[in-house]
Amino acid sequence: MTQIFADLSSMQDSMLTICGEDYNHIKNVLRMHPGEKLTVRGTDGSGEEYVFEIVSFSDNQVNCRLLSVKESEVELPVRVMLFQGLPKADKMDFIVQKTVEMGVTEIVPVEMHRSIVKLAGDKRRKRVERWQSIAEAAAKQSRRAIIPQVHEIMTYKEALRFAASAADPVLVPYEVMAEQSSSGTRTLLEALKPGQTAAVFVGPEGGFEGSEVDAAIGSGAKTISLGRRILRTETAAMAFLAFLIYRFELD
Ligand code: SAH
Fold this sequence. Notes:
Layout: E1 3-6, E2 15-19, H1 20-29, E3 37-42, E4 49-58, E5 61-70, E6 79-85, H2 91-102, E7 106-111, H3 121-141, E8 149-150, E9 154-155, H4 156-166, E10 170-173, H5 183-191, E11 197-202, H6 210-218, E12 222-224, H7 233-249
Parallel strand pairs: 1-3, 6-7, 6-11, 7-8, 7-9, 10-11, 10-12
Antiparallel strand pairs: 2-5, 3-4, 4-5
The structure holds S-adenosyl-L-homocysteine.
S-adenosyl-L-homocysteine binds next to helix 7.
């Protein structure tokens, strides 16, 4: 069924009017007709699926009637906030696209000690807007029930504070752990329960400074391993999400 994201706050008595770009898409691209059904997800991130039937088309709008609402079945049961150490050039584009496909819930770009890229002023804002639009396109493509939010770029300190207030557990994949046993990681992953929000911090190309890992541990974070090889920064979050997919979605 055709799926769109729309602002559902204007819904009244089970009726929704869709205008603008979505109207154009429904009428002129998909060439849909009254009587056809369409799935609408709210832009508020709640994840529910609203099934509507098209009732009529009037000047530049589609009028739809609500048929049913159902909980999303495509979202991971654990919310995942990715705190990504700012990587070089356009690697972040790739990280946003791939982690959205794999189920990330929110992305926070973080300036870390070893981040080479320093973005200032207008460029900073533009870059975040660009990542947000990549997230939106990836969410649509992979039929996500929500559009993951890309936050403003934070300092490491701000990021730690934000993670501690919004997530539990806070996990730090640390390559030094790769040489050690990963049984602690398995236990941490198995302890995750539906409804929880996990934060995961990934270092940039050069990895974390020891002091950054210490600060994270000091604020309650736990280090984890992503296996025995050193992964590139753009692979790390994907590996973590693959663990969660294995843990929660496979029979
Ligand atoms: N400093 C390292 C590479 C850093 S990799 C070096 O050049 O040798 C970038 C980030 O990916 C790390 O900071 C860490 O968060 C994550 N990472 C990569 N491989 C990992 C592994 N095997 N276990 C845990 N974290 C890993």
